[in-house]
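The records we work with from here on pair a chain with its fold. A complete example follows; check for yourself that the lines match position by position.
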Amino acid sequence: MPSLAVLFLAIFVILGLVRAAPSIPKPTITIDVANGKYASLGGIQPTLSWKTAGSTDEFGGTLDYEAGLNVVVEDLNKLPYNVWGRVKRSLGRGFNLGIAAKASSPSNFEDLSLDVTITGDDATLLQVTGQAFTSGVTNPVEKIQFHRALPVVGGGKLIVNPKYNFRTKDKDLFVYYAPSDGTRVGVETAAKKLTVSQTFPDKALTVKPSITPSRDFAVDVTKKFEKAGTTTISYKPATSVNLKWQDGPWVANLHAPMKSHLSFDGCDVSFKRKVDI
């Protein structure tokens, strides 16, 4: 029933247009240059984005909403796009209900992805994702996860985050202990990975090493500069080095695969810039 999917999303967009007028926000353009990947456009992939947000009391209570449209120019003969919408409403006692929907043009809107989330002031989260109006799928629910932060005697929090995928039958459990000194120790059961994260007192530097039982080691180092954005270096020995730099609307990525510990196998560079119009 693709017509119902389009109608559902159209309500989000029309509501945003009506409530935002006459101060409808301007769209933004992001230009992504990625190593000549988009040859038909000379290595440039423009993305046009528009969104609006607001609140209304016309549905028996305050309803916060967002709606938007993204158009990606991959080829001069193609204009793939997606339309999305989100609404949020208070359930009382510190809990909020959020519903998000998204559909994309390549599927002709036959598949409508849905995301239902209940959040609480105490960092509680219940999230269910799936698809509506999908032909050939008996169970529209795809994933479910629960997140809860529990206070620990002596300070800090114990964070428990189980996840389950109904279609792949994959299950995972994230357990983290976060004391109040900026340290975070976590275990991921599916990946069998132990991660230790340390954020230093000025919050400008974070070091996050991880290791698995098969001795796969990786480390991420994030540095925040006062006037030069944020830089993250990800290093996996004998596998790859990745550098990401973000400064306001500018984002640059450098990815260098490795043949061995000291030998690199080429380098991929990309950058993008968001432009307000």
